[in-house]
Specification:
Elements lengths: L20 E6 L4 E6 L4 E7 L6 E2 L3 E2 L5 E8 L9 E9 L4 E7 L6 E7 L4 E6 L4 E6 L4 E7 L5 E6 L5 E6 L4 E6 L4 E7 L8 E2 L5 E5 L5 E6 L4 E7 L7 E3 L5 E6 L4 E6 L4 E7 L7 E3 L5 E5 L4 E6 L4 E7 L4 E7 L3
Antiparallel strand pairs: 1-2, 1-29, 2-3, 4-6, 5-6, 6-7, 7-8, 9-10, 10-11, 11-12, 13-14, 14-15, 15-16, 17-18, 18-19, 19-20, 21-22, 22-23, 23-24, 25-26, 26-27, 27-28
Length: 328
């Protein structure tokens, strides 16, 4: 597959408004890649149009027409640099940035999650130690939820939209949030350093990997306590449950693999070779998984049952956040 050169404008190609589309936030060249799921090829590139800052994570609306890209800044978590204060709104069919949500000050907005239950957007706003709530129709800020901890970087929400869970990076904790009453329920110490977070399909468990030891924390959502630790072959990073909910996929950046955790036995059942330093992982409704490979400027697609990479998709530099624009 041929790598597309970054244009100065959005590339214009034939596109169906209801295409099955993978979105990739590329930190290295400050772009969003649009990948056609059927051909497994990048078909367009959208420049972020924000000077000296870039987005890390991206989300799509349930109808597959709109993408939301928080602009984090120009540095890493806890490091000095410019603090992002905006979120870009992208029309996927036309490949254009159509609007901007302004948080009013530098808050380092990072992870955005769409809650279909209440039709709301939740955005982690690290420097405010909060989750900011945005109405996707009016694009107005309608509330906040305090996390009770600094560096609330990533967010997972329960499938009924009532609970939220943030991974708080350098405190190494997880905040449990009541998204209905908009309050902090608990802040659970986990490890010296945490990062990504996910929730099981049945909402019984939340997962976050220790960034100092090769182990995965399994948090019982009924008690808001760590139920068990799962040993990993190497340090883990991004996680996502499989479509059937029976397993959890976790990237192992230092070994270029994805581990498959059996959620029945709470043990790693096998590992799959994927790409250099895999980061975020996304599982489509039909079971195909994508993993971002920033060192290769690629996204690897694979079926868990087949146990091997199906395709390597060339995208932008420093590929990171992934979103599935399902369409119809």
């Amino acid at each position: 597959m041929t790598r597309l050169v970054l244009p100065l404008f959005v590339m214009s190609v034939a596109f169906s408004a209801f295409a099955q589309t993978l979105l990739v936030a590329n930190q290295g060249d400050r772009t969003v890649s649009i990948v056609d799921a059927n051909s497994a090829q990048q078909v367009a590139v959208i420049p972020e149009s924000v000077s000296d800052q870039w987005g890390h994570e991206i989300a799509a609306s349930p109808d597959g027409r709109t993408a939301y890209l928080p602009i984090y800044g120009n540095s890493g978590v806890g490091r000095a640099g410019l603090d992002g204060s905006k979120m870009l709104v992208i029309d996927i069919p036309t490949r254009k940035i159509t609007s901007t949500v302004d948080f009013g000050k530098g808050v380092r907005p990072h992870c955005v999650v769409f809650d279909r239950n209440r039709n709301l957007l939740y955005v982690t706003t690290e420097l405010a130690q909060s989750i900011t709530i945005v109405d996707p129709k009016s694009l107005q800020i309608v509330g906040t939820v305090p996390t009770g901890a600094p560096q609330s970087h990533m967010l997972a929400i329960s499938h009924d939209g009532k609970r939220g869970y943030t991974s708080n990076v350098e405190p190494g904790s997880v905040s449990v949030l009541d998204l209905v009453t908009r309050r902090t329920i608990a802040v659970l110490p986990v490890a010296p350093h945490a990062q990504r977070i996910s929730i099981s399909n049945d909402d019984k468990f939340v997962f976050t990997a220790d960034q100092t030891k090769p182990q995965l924390a399994v948090i019982d959502t009924a008690t808001n306590q760590i139920k068990t630790w799962i040993p990993l072959p190497s340090l883990g990073y991004g996680t996502a449950p499989t479509a059937d909910g029976k397993a959890l996929l976790i990237t192992l950046p230092s070994s270029n693999k994805v581990a498959v955790v059996d959620l029945g036995s709470m043990k790693v059942s096998r590992t799959l070779d994927v790409c250099q330093s895999p980061q975020e992982i996304l599982v489509r409704p039909d079971g195909l998984a994508y993993v971002s490979c920033p060192k290769d400027n690629q996204v690897a697609a694979f079926h868990v049952k087949q146990g091997k990479v199906q395709s390597l998709i060339n995208v932008g530099k420093g590929s990171d956040g992934l979103a599935w624009a399902k369409g119809k």
